[in-house]
Automatic annotation (TrEMBL):
UniProt protein name: Pectate lyase superfamily protein domain-containing protein
Classification via InterPro entries: Pectin_lyas_fold, Pectin_lyase_fold/virulence
Superkingdom in the source lineage: Bacteria
Length: 552
């Protein structure tokens, strides 16, 4: 509490700042106080009371600096507000501005645990008509929350029940001259809120946060709210350096357009989705450089609900996607990037701890527009980064209705050693849903035989798919069986124009981490057919996917 500041803290502050630390009452002239370069927060405590609530003290101090700026119509040369080490109980939202500096002298705890659960903790807005002046917003260019002298911790009403955000940045209306720019924080910890940092995209840009932690907040570490129709003059170079985002459903949740975020040397630990784009996110870029990402229940990039003009870029980072809370799901290579945002990755090290559940489970979804994937590194378990666009029709067996017999499929045909021995049909299947962060109802081709292990059979693409000479085509199959799992052999038959056969490339799956087949397309080939032969399988066999794609 403000009124419990120790004599040791006072003398330390005096030594640091070269001023007496005598607490004086509200309403005295500036000349009778500390030097104009700083003010102690405690100078604004109400007289004659045993303070149990520091809300008024903080707001009076902030309003004091705000009034100087409004009176002089200038944000340069304003005094900083020094907060001595200690715990401060705050029961209402504190409203500040980017050019009002709250600085710690020792470790500071801003305790909002008694705040009404629907209220925000600290808002940083610039809803004034102050001109930019010749210096162009001179008071903004430093953290408005500066924990250099000791961490500033912002504790909320509780992760489970809070409905407000710890920090809110941005204006509520677009008509003000003031902008929330060149603002941010240093050495700040935000915990126990619905979300740590909310950004309202109205004249909010050039944000910079350093060495801060946004952890154990229920929904998001960073949340960009939807603007009124669209963002206004917002989103340029939102920068985070040496920060940690942990313990939230979404680490970065963007629901507005024109947002460009850069994360450098940051950690993303134990979140649902790491980067999530909402429906109002239509264009912008999120770049992660030299970051560490660990513990993902959902997706590394989730753009399944957003627009098409978004980008995510990962450089020289480490991804260890073990599960956070969903311990029932296997910690194997699985889809981690989905949706319509463009994706680029270079020098990313992937660390998996369990064997893959299916050869076709690529880290990057087929629908993702991949700009570049280079220099991938894998520890313990090899994974399939990306398949590009699947080029054979009906690779998921979804174009024919459940109940369609195998001899009536539109894009597939069957070949068996003993005609009439094997029966099959399309069935609804959820067997692969648990292996994907984007679980959905799937279909499968189910085959049954009394003697599959003695009767090899083949599934063949009825419709040829296009190929180009010199490229590499790959194929793989995910299948499950109630009996014995056998072997799978792949055969590519290439054709020249007019359906003239050229050559055949054959390969058989092996018991390795990623069984698949690949073949170089010979000169003159324009089409190909894939024949997949199953040998030694017993019981009921369900083929969930059988796909061909080009090498990236």
């Amino acid at each position: 509490m403000v009124n419990r500041r120790s004599a040791m803290g006072l003398s330390a502050g005096a030594a640091i700042l070269g001023a007496t630390a005598v607490s004086r009452g509200w309403g005295e002239s500036i000349e009778n106080r500390s030097p104009s370069g700083f003010r102690w927060i405690s100078d604004f405590a109400a007289k004659g009371k045993g303070a149990t609530d520091d809300t008024g003290t903080f707001q009076r101090a902030i309003d004091y600096v705000r009034n100087i700026a409004l009176h002089t119509r200038d944000t340069s040369c304003l005094p900083a507000l020094m907060i001595p080490a200690g715990r401060y109980v705050l029961t209402e939202t504190i409203d500040t501005a980017p050019w009002i500096k709250l600085c710690s002298v020792g470790g500071v705890l801003l305790d909002f645990s008694q705040l009404p659960v629907g209220w925000d903790g600290l808002t940083c807005r610039n809803e004034t008509t102050l001109p930019a002046t010749e210096l162009r917003f001179p008071g903004d260019r430093s953290p408005f929350l500066d924990g250099t002298g000791g961490t500033i911790s912002i504790l909320g009403p509780g992760k489970a029940r809070a409905e407000g955000w710890g920090i809110v940045m941005g204006n509520r209306q677009a008509g003000f001259s003031g902008a929330v720019r060149d603002a941010g924080g240093r050495n700040v910890v935000v915990t126990g809120w619905r979300g740590a940092l909310r950004i309202d995209p109205l004249n909010t840009y050039l944000t910079a946060w350093f060495s801060s932690r946004f952890e154990q907040n229920r929904e998001n570490g960073i949340y960009v709210a939807a603007g009124v129709g669209r963002s206004v003059n917002s989103g340029e170079r939102m920068t985070f350096v040496d920060c940690t985002f942990a313990g939230s459903a979404r680490a970065v949740d963007i629901n507005s357009d024109s947002m460009d975020f850069v994360f450098d040397a940051c950690s993303f630990d134990f979140n649902g989705d790491v980067v999530y784009f909402g429906r109002q996110a239509r264009f912008g870029t999120v770049a992660l450089n030299h970051c560490h990402i660990e513990g993902i229940d959902g997706l590394l990039v989730n753009a399944t609900a957003s627009g098409k003009h978004l980008r995510t870029v990962f450089h020289d980072s480490i991804v260890l996607p073990r599960r956070w809370k969903r311990k029932d799901l296997n910690n194997a290579p699985r889809q981690l990037v989905a949706g319509t945002a463009k994706f680029s990755a270079s020098g990313v090290e992937w660390r998996f701890e369990s064997p893959p559940q299916g050869a076709l489970t690529a880290l990057i979804g087929d629908e993702v527009p991949v700009e570049s994937v280079t220099a991938m590194s894998f520890q313990k378990v090899q994974a399939l980064p990306w398949r590009g666009s699947v080029i054979n029709a009906d690779s998921l067996f979804t174009l024919d209705r459940p109940g369609t017999r195998v001899d009536a499929l539109t894009h597939w045909s069957m070949s068996v050693a003993t005609p009439g021995q094997t029966a099959g049909q399309i069935v609804a299947s959820d067997t692969v849903a648990g292996n994907s962060a984007v679980a959905s109802s799937r279909q499968a081709l189910r085959l049954a035989s009394n003697d599959l292990d003695n009767a090899p059979f083949s599934v063949i693409t009825r419709t040829p798919f296009p190929v180009s000479p010199g490229e590499t085509v790959l194929a793989a199959c995910t299948a499950t069986a109630t009996g014995t799992t056998g072997r799978t052999a792949f055969s590519f038959q290439f054709f020249a124009a007019g359906g003239v056969p050229l050559s055949v490339s054959e390969s058989q799956s092996a018991a390795n981490e990623l069984p698949s087949a690949q073949a170089a397309v010979p000169a003159g080939a324009v089409q190909a057919v894939l024949k997949t032969t199953f040998t030694g399988w017993t019981g009921k066999l369900e083929i969930n996917e059988l796909a061909v794609w080009r090498s990236s």
